[in-house]
Amino acid sequence: MLEGANIRYARPSDATSIGEVYAETWQDTYPAALPINKLARLSKDALARQWFVRIKSAQGAYRTSDAVIVATTAQGRIVAFGDCGVNRRPQYRFASEVYTLYVLPDYQQFGLGTRILGALFDHLRNYKKNTVVVWALIDNPNRHFYSGLGGEIIGEYKTTHWGSAVTEVGYGWHNLKEWLSENDEALRIKR
């Protein structure tokens, strides 16, 4: 566990830091799976603008399950984040989806990913969502994290990223209420 780490809902002022985490984690994780020239040119400014809009949208979604959650160090630096909402692939019968979960390489293995995932699950349960799916690129060396937390492989999905054909693996949870009751209360987000 990272001493003094805090899990909280993102604020619009977090968008720049979230864009930086997004760019760094993609550049670290996917050099073998995606075009290196595209990864190198990820614009932190463009990502910050996208995340600003996403955070504002989630904040305005009072009746939906959308959320962006961050992990900060004791000093307030954002080192990880995730977001969730409704399932975007209805052919897979899950009520909700975790869209992203990224932890800076130097902050992996401290439990932050687990704490964010738990907070996202807790948020979804508060909106009466009891099933969730996460899609991870098959080339993501960290994707087994999800099966380690009880996610069952539910299928593969072929798509493209930046013109490259990729396969995503879906991990599903069929009972968030049960998962949350079996896991530490500390995983839940502080309100």
Give the gist of this structure.
The protein has six helices and seven strands; from the N terminus they run E-H-H-H-E-E-E-H-E-H-E-E-H. By secondary structure, the chain is α+β, with helices and mostly antiparallel strands. The protein has a single domain (6-187), classed as Aminopeptidase (3-Layer(aba) Sandwich), CATH 3.40.630.30.
Commentary on this structure:
There is one protein chain. The protein is built from six helices and seven strands. With 191 residues, the protein is an alpha+beta fold. The chain has a seven-stranded mixed β-sheet with strand order 1-2-3-4-5-7-6, sandwiched between helices. A hairpin with a 2-residue loop joins strand 6 and strand 7. Helix 1 crosses helix 3. The mean pLDDT is 90.
- How far from one another are the termini? 20 Å
Structural class: alpha+beta
Low-confidence stretches: none
- CATH architecture call: 3-Layer(aba) Sandwich
Largest sheet: 7 strands, mixed
Q: What characteristic shape results from the CA principal axes?
A: globular
Q: Helix count?
A: 6
Q: Indicate the CATH topology.
A: Aminopeptidase
- The gyration radius over C-alpha positions equals 16 Å
Q: Which strands sit side by side, in order, in the main sheet?
A: 1-2-3-4-5-7-6
For the record, what CATH class applies?
Answer: Alpha Beta
Helical content band: 25-40%
Strand content: 25-35%
DSSP strand count: 7
Mean pLDDT: 90
